[in-house]
Specification:
Blueprint lengths: L1 H24 L4 E8 L13 E7 L3 E8 L4 E8 L4 E8 L2 E10 L5 E8 L4 E8 L2
Antiparallel strand pairs: 1-2, 1-8, 2-3, 3-4, 4-5, 5-6, 6-7, 7-8
Length: 131
């Protein structure tokens, strides 16, 4: 299992340079995102992880990246509907490992919600506009 995760992480990291470059060259605001687990253990008895990263909230999309407390890198993508509802996922390479839902405030300074991963860990997330 660790070999599979390591392989997926290496594949993912090879694409991170492009994602981060696109985030830095864009003029849309950057948000710091923090995902915190509300559970200690997953369905297999393994420790659940927290994650931190950066995202951009566009008119109808969410894009970014995060690293969890085990050092695994994730690509974050999602959608925003007209009411401000946010849905999306954290992916390791092409596998969506975490699904999330939430809402941004009317001023688009904050966003928050809940998440659940493929191992049944779950928690909350919040994003704060940094500029």
């Amino acid at each position: 299992m660790k070999a599979v995760i390591t392989s997926l992480l290496l594949i993912f990291l090879s694409g991170c340079a492009t994602t981060n470059a696109n985030l830095q060259s864009d003029n849309s605001p950057i948000y710091k995102i923090i995902a915190v687990t509300t559970m200690e253990l997953d369905k297999h008895g393994n420790t659940c992880a927290d994650a931190t990263g950066t995202i951009r909230l566009y008119e109808n999309g969410v894009y970014g990246s995060a690293i969890d407390s085990f050092g695994r890198g994730f690509k974050i993508t999602g959608k925003i509907d007209a009411s401000g509802k946010i849905t999306g996922g954290f992916a390791l390479s092409v596998i969506t490992a975490v699904d999330f839902i939430g809402q941004h405030d009317a001023d688009k300074k904050y966003a928050n919600g809940t998440w659940k991963d493929i191992y049944e860990c779950k928690g909350t997330w919040n994003a704060t506009k940094t500029f």
